[in-house]
């Protein structure tokens, strides 16, 4: 299993979900008690547990598992994980809480959006209600004067949270800041319907105002130039939205909107071949995310 120290008291666990590298990771903050960010999907909980072992984390010491949102790839494994962490509680947005306690509706809707990918991630197990802490703001003590601060950053989902850790001044944005491709050091959008552009842009402004030093992407890994990336991502979202709006006005197919995005977005142009040949990203970026923008554009134009 692959774990890596990426900052003061901070470690990344490569989850290698379904054998895919550089796709999903969890983070461990070693403060006064171990603090986890993202459970990742159900099917890679065994990999997370062996990562914790590699980091010498005693399972009964883990106090919190913070999930940025309840999509299968971020909080889907929380119920399974908690079976192994007898004293841990899950931190989640109140709008995500019902889906953690009772995932019976989340699973079929995830299957509908993700198709075969939902089977790679695995079906979520319920989290006992008394072990969920619903929050939209506030902070948690990490020890040594450090804290983890919660910021509500909706847009990608109506219940996305971001977390700022003060040991290093970095932010865990979940999917609020896009998907980072470490192979190319660039960010691409991954926002399935329903996508809320205005909320997403406002959330990015919130993250920019925190002046983070680094971003810890759940997909995938640590990235520097945090503020610059967040600003660039705002422009990228706006560009995709403009293209989608033009496409809806002109009655383009999804493929036509997608191809226009690849032609006009410099980042997408650079990574298009990689994404097209990637089993997961070809679906989440080039289908679901393009659809997210088209649905947004249709909604905006009232059609
Ligand atoms: Zn995600």
Keywords:
303 residues; alpha+beta; Metallo-beta-lactamase, Chain A; 2 domains; seven-stranded mixed beta sheet; four-stranded antiparallel beta sheet; 10 helices; 15 strands; binds zinc ion
Report on the structure:
The chain has two domains: 2-229, Ribonuclease Z/Hydroxyacylglutathione hydrolase-like (Metallo-beta-lactamase, Chain A); 235-300, no CATH class. It is built from ten helices and 15 strands. The protein has helices at 45-54, 78-82, 97-101, 106-114, 116-121, 197-209, 226-249, 254-264, 266-276, 281-300, and strands spanning 2-7, 10-14, 25-30, 34-37, 64-66, 89-92, 132-134, 138-143, 146-152, 161-165, 170-172, 179-181, 186-188, 215-217, 221-223. The strands form four sheets. It has a seven-stranded mixed sheet. It has a four-stranded antiparallel sheet with strand order 8-9-10-11. A two-stranded antiparallel sheet has the order 12-13. Helix 6 runs antiparallel to helix 7 (226-249), helix 7 packs across helix 10 (281-300) and helix 8 packs across helix 9. The chain is globular. The model has no long low-confidence stretch (mean pLDDT 97). The structure holds zinc ion. Zinc ion (ZN) binds next to loops.
N to C succession of SSEs: EEEEHEHEHHHEEEEEEEHEEHHHH
Helical stretch count?
A: 10
CATH class (first level) name of the largest domain = Alpha Beta
Assigned CATH superfamily of the largest domain: Ribonuclease Z/Hydroxyacylglutathione hydrolase-like
Strand segment tally: 15
For the record, give the distance between the C-alpha atoms at the N and C termini, rounded to a whole number: 49 Å
Shape: globular
CATH third-tier fold name of the largest domain: Metallo-beta-lactamase, Chain A
Helix content range of the residues, please? 25-40%
The overall number of domains is: 2
Low-confidence parts, pLDDT < 50 over ≥5 residues?
none
Strands in their spatial order, largest beta sheet: 1-2-3-4-5-6-7
> What is the correct CATH architecture of the largest domain?
4-Layer Sandwich
How big is the Rg? Answer: 18 Å
Tell me the structural class. alpha+beta
Return the average pLDDT rounded to an integer: 97
């Amino acid at each position: 299993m692959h774990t890596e120290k990426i900052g003061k008291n901070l470690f990344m666990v490569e989850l290698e979900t379904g054998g895919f590298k550089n796709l999903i990771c969890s983070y461990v903050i070693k403060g006064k008690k171990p603090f986890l960010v993202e459970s990742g999907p159900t099917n890679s909980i065994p990999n997370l547990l062996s990562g914790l072992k590699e980091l010498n984390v005693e399972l009964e010491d883990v106090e919190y598992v913070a999930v940025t949102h309840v999509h299968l790839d971020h909080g889907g494994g929380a119920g399974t994980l908690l079976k192994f962490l007898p004293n841990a509680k899950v931190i989640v947005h109140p709008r995500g809480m019902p889906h953690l306690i009772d995932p019976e509706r989340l699973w079929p809707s995830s299957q509908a959006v993700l198709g075969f990918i939902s089977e790679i991630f695995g079906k979520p197990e319920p989290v006992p209600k008394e072990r969920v802490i619903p929050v939209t703001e506030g902070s948690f003590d990490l020890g040594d004067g450090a804290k983890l601060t919660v910021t509500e950053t909706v847009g990608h989902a109506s219940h996305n949270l971001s977390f700022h850790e003060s040991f290093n001044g970095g932010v865990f944005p979940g999917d609020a800041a896009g998907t980072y491709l470490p192979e190319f050091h660039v960010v691409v959008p991954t926002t399935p319907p329903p996508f809320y552009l205005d909320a997403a842009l406002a959330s990015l402004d919130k993250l920019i105002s925190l002046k983070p030093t680094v971003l810890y992407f759940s997909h995938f890994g640590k990235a520097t130039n945090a503020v610059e990336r967040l600003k660039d991502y705002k422009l990228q979202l706006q560009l995709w939205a403009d293209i989608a709006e033009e496409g809806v006005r002109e009655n383009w197919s999804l493929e036509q909107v997608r191809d226009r995005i690849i032609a006009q977005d410099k980042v997408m142009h650079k990574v298009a071949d990689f994404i097209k040949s990637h089993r997961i990203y070809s679906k989440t970026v080039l289908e679901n995310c393009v659809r997210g923008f088209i649905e947004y554009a249709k909604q905006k134009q009232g059609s």
